[in-house]
Each structure stands twice: as structure tokens, then as C-alpha cells.
Amino acid sequence: MSRHSQGNELTLRGFKSNIVNRRIVALFVVILIVNFNHNLRVSNENTARNFQYKSWQILTKEAALFKDVKTSDIFISNNQNDAFETNAGSFYANTGIRLAYLFNTSSVFPNIVDCQLSTNCKLGGVRQKSISTIPNLTRGTFVPKRNDSKRIDDWVGINSRPGALDNSTIWAFDMFLLTPTTYFSYLAPFLDNETESRIDFTALRAATVTNNQANEFIPAIANVCLIQDGETKTISNFLLTYWKVPVDPKSPSGTSVTERESLDFREIQAGSCVLK
Amino acid sequence: MKEVITYFRLHRLLSTYIGLGTIWVINVSSIFRSSWAGDDWPISQTPFWIQWRYGALTIWNIWTEAMFWNDQWMKGAGRFYPLTWIESRFVFSYLMELWQYKTYQITMLILAGILLVVVCYLFSKSHSFSILVLASLSLTVQFRRDFDPHLAFAVMLPSLLIKILLAVILAYFAGAERRKTVGTVLGFFAGVIFFAAMSTYEFGFLLFPMLVCSFLIAEISNDRKLTNASTLKIHVSRLLSIKFLPIVISWIGYGLYVFAYLRPNAVAISGSYVLGLSMSSFKVFFSQLIMGLPLVSLRQGDLSFSTLSLVIGAVFILIANLSFKQLFLVMQQKVARDEILSKEGDRDKFYSYFLLLFSLTMILSPGLMMSMQPTWWNRADFSHTYLGVMITEFGTAVLIAYLLNRVVINNLKPVILKRKN
Q1: Which of A248, B66, B149, B192 could tie B157 with a disulfide, CB 3.0–4.6 Å?
Q2: Phi, psi torsion values for B413, nearest 5 degrees
Q3: Are residues B295 and A35, on separate chains, in Cβ contact within 8 Å?
Q4: What is the model's pLDDT at position B301?
Q5: Chain-centroid distance, C-alpha B158
Q6: Distance between CA B280 and CA B278 in Å, rounded?
Q7: What is the pLDDT of residues B346-397, one digit of tens each?
Q8: What is the mean pLDDT of each run of 10 residues along chain A (276 residues)?
Q9: Helix runs in B342-388, H state only
């Protein structure tokens, strides 16, 4: 204010105008902080899928769950979604295994919702259904132009040729959040059967990724508690645990259950058992 | 002595630019907290699909895939925005990690903001006004909970704004250039970049008045005889100049290609791209006018502050206070000088009209577009908006800065007037 101290009236006017400008600055700062907080909140709200995304990366880049899977095998999954990372393209980029496709169950069995086990409805053989769906795939497609028009490396085209997938294994596969802190995935080969879609239950392998330091429960499949088959810390400090079907199966309530070698695909329901 | 005063003035301006620029960067950097959002989820998977289907992610494969989808949308929906296909495909193919993509998103938005500040400086030749634009951007840019152009949609809107603002800058220099040949060359480049902007998002077509304003402001700045409104009419007729012709050709050319060729031949125009008018159009239009106003997207719970917000808030208080103190000192000196020279006149009024027209183009056009789309008639309201809202935010920032500038100057005037006595 010393700059404006040449008279009482002058000092007063200078003071008043500066007060207004100071108020403008104060209002600016308040709005700025509230707006920043709002922007930060909206950004954070957008991170709901982060754990799923990271778990998929761990599963496909670090886990040994897919060591028996080979090129041109087929995956069928209830939770597969092309809109997110759970797709054949991302699987290939991360694992180096070029699947014929990672199908959503509804693509192979469009009637699965109406075809319940309880009504003795049969799904039919998985191999023929999935192989016949391959030529209709449009993902990643583009029309080759000019000198590329004779290209033969269209993976869908290659796999659509007669007999191309005869030696492929078809796998029941899934990946989803079992709890907010545990991502669960299983893999089991389908049995070659033209009338039913059954999996080899004894060959089922599963993995969990948890962002806790320890597992909080044991996963179960089809009412059978799995047993641990090793665990490891991932690069991002998550806990990756492998699971398999025990020789002496027990239900979540702890009672022994009949050992089964195969399961109908629709029986694969995940659950949990208490840690001992 | 004059050099010393100029040195201190520049020093103050620079520190204010840096201070408020830092606030702008910090504000936009909150994007880092987000994940992939909206369409970015599926688009980010495209390179993996190309790799899976064709064995390798080559430049040719990426290009061909982008062109394939552009072709599909051209023939199907009659839309023409190939640059979005190309940019998004290449960005997601080479910036695969989330932090890389978010860095790109932030950089593009920061750049769009800086270009707006440059444009406003060119128009007004006033650092205080352009600094206030920079400050206002941090108030008007708000992330949205439905369709958000800041966090998602493959940086389409910042990319559009960058191109539009570059075209505006070139149109300005074309208008300001006295040599016809050089001016025409600049106009040609402005036209090319404007075409690229429309080819990024068709929305750019509606932003043509921004280039008109830019060109005319530059023309006016050339004319020392400007004294009254009739002279202004002569300047408007200068839009027929050969320097502006490439921009007009670009605009009309794009319009004819899309509306006279592509759309009549399109085989599957979705309901979202059919234009119409009803009473609901007015409701949609007016609801979208205010979407750039500060805090308009605030919802319940947004006033709960995290520790990070409070810490950053304290930093903002410090930076804003220091920056505005410097700015007001500079403005005070400027007001004193202008009062003595009685500089403000018709010319400033004309600048103001065009500046307001420039900002209103940005504020009004997104609402205008949505009001003509039946798909939005029952969806757009005071809390629901679409991607064009980013353009409204930028336009609103200019308008707020304009009003702030006038208010602050008026507040400074009495002090100076009394000092003269």
C-alpha cells in the first residue's frame, strides 16, 4: 500500500480495487482446488478394472498355467470379452501361443442358456462346433490391398482349411475375479466326444493371483476343493498360486466326495473352501 | 531506464506464464490416475488382434487395418474421419503401456491448451489476457463421468483442437501477411491443416468461423485507418481474398465430399448420424451451453478431499497467489500506460467482437450439433454431454478470461486515475 499513500482518498480507492482483485484470486483458487479434486476423483473411478488387467498380464506373461497349450489350440471361456484384454490377440502377444481362437461360450453354444443340465439337454460335441465357427471370425480382419491381396498368412484363413485343426486341443478356460482381491483362472482339456462337451477333470489346472501377501481361501471347482500346487511372488509383488484337483477330493464342507474323472462343461462352477 | 522496466515486465510475465502453466500441467496430469476408459479399452487391443491375425505388427499392417475400418465407415455410415483411425491405431501400437499412453494423452491436452493461449495472444496482443486464458483453462476443463474426451476416445478431441488451433494460427498469419503470395501459401497450409482437423473428427466442420475470425482480426491489425463500423464491412469482404481462398476450398470441399457424396451413397447410416430438428433440440442446445462453466460437472461426493488433493491444493494456493500478484502488477502498469495514451478505441472493440465470436463458436457448436441429433434428444441434459464438450470448455475459458480481464482492469483503473491527479 505504500505505493498509494499520497492521500487518504487515493489510499482508500487503491485498497478497495485490490480487495476485489484479491477476492477474484481467492475465488479462482477455491474453484481450482475443487475442480482438481473432482478431476482426480473421476480419474480414480476409472480404475475399477486395474486389478483384473494386471492379473491377466501376470497370468499370461509370468504364470506357467499354459505350458501344455500349443499353437492352434482353442479356448472356450464364459468370461471372455473382446472389448477388454481377455482375447486371443492379447493372449498371443503375451504368451507367444497363437490360439486358433479364444471363444466366448455363447459363440460356440448359442443355446447354452436354455440348455440346462437339469433338463438332460445335451450341448453336443465341442470340436465340431468350435471349428465350424472359426471361418466366421471377423476380429482383426482387414481387406488386403494391392500386392498384399495374395497373402496367405491370415490366421483365420489358415485355420479354416480342412483338417487344419484336427490335432488341436480344445480347452475349457476362464478368468474372473473370485473376490475383489483374488483373480481366478482355470484350464482343462475337453475330452474328444462328439455327443457331449465334457472336460478331463483330473487334468484341470488353476491359478489365483492375489494382491494380498497370502491366500485367504482355497478355490473350489464343481464342489471340489482344489489343492495347492506351488506358489510364487510376481514381479509386481502379487501372489501367484497354482492349484490342482486332489486325488482324494473333499467338498467345501470338508466331507469326502466321489472322485470324478470328467465333468460336463456346465458343471464347472467356481467356489471356495476355508484355509486350514 | 526503459530497458530496466521492460526487463522487469518480461520477468514478471514469464514467471506468471510459468506459474499458471504449472497449474495447468498439474491439473491435466490427474489423467495419470486413470486407466483405459471408454472406447480405449477395445481400441487398445487392436494391435494384438493384428498381430494374432496376420502374424506381425508391421507399419503396413497397421495402416491397412486403419484404412479398412475407415473404408467401412465411409461406405457404411457416410462418415469421413480417417486420421482418427490412423492416429489411434499407431498410438496404441507403439504406446502399449498404460503410462506411455497416458503421457501422450496429457501431452496432447497440454499442447492444445498452450495453442489456445498462443491464439489468444495473437488476437489480443495482450499477455495479461492470454495468461488469464491459461488460468481459466484449469477451471473449465473438467473430466466427465459419461462420455469423457479427456481420459478416453483415443485423444481424438485434443488432436482435433490442436489441428484447428494450428489452422487458426496460420490463418492469422495469412491475414496479417501483406505479400499476397506468402499470404496465399500460409492460407494453403491453414486449409490443409483445417482439412486434417475435419478428417480427425467431422465436428471440425462447424468450427470454420474460428478461422474467419482469425483471418479478419489479422486483416484489421494490418489496417491503420480503421475508425468505424463501415470500415469493418470492407474487412469482412476481404474474406474473398485469395489468401483465404484455400481455407474456403478446404471447408466447402470437405462438406461436399461428406454431405453430397458419401452420405447419399452410404448403405447403413445409423440413427446416431441422422440429423433432425424438434422442440427437444432447443432443450438439448441450451443444456449444452453451460457445460463448460466451472464446477458444472460436480456431483455428490466430489467435495470430499483426498490427502493428495489437499497437498496439491496448498501448492495451487501458493503458485496462484504469486502468479496473480505478478500479473496484476504488470496489468497495473499497462492500464496506466494505456490511460495516458488513451489507446482504447474502435479497434479494441472490433477485436473484442471477433474474440467473442471466436469463443462463442466453440461454446455453441457442440450443443448445436447435439441438438440436431435425435439420438441425443432424450439423453443430453445438464449432467449428460458428449465429446464436443472439450471444445465448449476451451471456448468458455476464453470467455471467462475476457470477462476477468475487463473486471480486473476496471478494478485497477481508479488507483491509476487518482495517481495521475
Answers
A1: B149
A2: -55, -50
A3: yes
A4: 85
A5: 8
A6: 5
A7: 667 778 888 999 999 999 999 999 999 998 888 888 888 999 999 999 999 9
A8: 42 58 93 97 92 96 95 96 94 97 93 82 87 84 57 80 93 95 96 87 96 92 95 93 95 91 92 89
A9: 346-371
Compute how many other C-beta atoms are within 10 angstroms of the C-beta atom of residue B143: 24
One-letter amino acid at A69 equals: V
Is the pLDDT at B230 greater than 60, yes or no?
no
Q: What is the DSSP string of B44-64?
A: HTHHHHHHHHHSS--HHHHHH
User: In the numeric block, which cell numbers belong to residue A270?
Assistant: 467356481
Cell of B65: 487395418
Local structure of residue A112 (DSSP, 8 states): T
If one compares B209 and B235, the residue with the highest pLDDT of the two is B209
Kind and range of the H or E run holding A73: none
Residues 107-146 of A with CB under 8 A from B: 139-145
Residues 6+ apart with CB under 8 A from B22: B319
* pLDDT at A100 (0 to 100): 96
Distance from CA of B226 to the nearest CA of A (A): 33
- DSSP run (H or E) holding B324: helix B307-341
Tell me what percent of the residues of chain A surpass a pLDDT of 70. 89
Which of A4, A84, A98 comes nearest B41 by C-beta? A84
Place of cell 424438434: B278
CA–CA separation, B116 and A227 (whole Å): 61
Q: Give the mutation candidate from A2, A16, A24, A40 for the B interface (greatest B CB count, under 10 A).
A: A40
CB-defined contacts A:B, below 8 A:
202
* Amino acid at position B234, single letter: I
CA distance B108 to B103: 9
Residue with cell 479478419: B216
> Which residue from A minimizes the CA distance to B26?
A36
Eight-state DSSP code of residue B256:
I
Percent of chain B with pLDDT over 70: 92
Phi, psi of A206 (to 5 degrees): -135, 165
Determine the pLDDT at residue A18: 74
Is there a contact between A21 and B328 if contact means CB atoms under 8 Å apart? yes
Q: What is the rounded CA–CA span in Å between residue A17 and residue B211?
A: 37
Q: What is the pLDDT of residue B192?
A: 98
Candidates B34, B35, B298; nearest CB to A38: B298
ipTM: 0.92
Distance CA A87, CA A253 (A): 35
Three cell numbers at A40?
A: 482426480
Taking the C-alpha atoms of residue B47 and residue B44, their distance in angstroms, rounded to an integer, is 7
Q: Is A53 on the interface with B (CB under 8 A)?
A: yes
Calculated CA dihedral for residues B290, B273, B258, B365, nearest 10 degrees: -10
- The C-alpha cell at B93 is 501400437
Cβ(B207)–Cβ(B365) below 8 Å: yes
C-alpha cell at B154: 483415443
- Per-residue pLDDT tens over the stretch B21-58: 999 999 999 999 999 998 999 999 999 999 999 888 99
Tens of pLDDT, residue by residue over B239-260, are 889 999 999 999 999 999 999 9
Q: How far apart are CA A20 and CA A13, in angstroms?
A: 11
DSSP A196-216: --EEEGGG-EEEEEESSSS-S
* Max Cα-Cα span within chain A: 103
Residue B344 has pLDDT above 90, yes or no: no
**Cβ within 8 Å, pair B316-A43:** no
Cell (9 digits) for B214: 482469425
pLDDT tens for residues B98-153? 999 999 999 999 999 999 999 999 999 999 999 999 999 999 999 999 899 999 99
- Residue type at B359 in one-letter notation: S
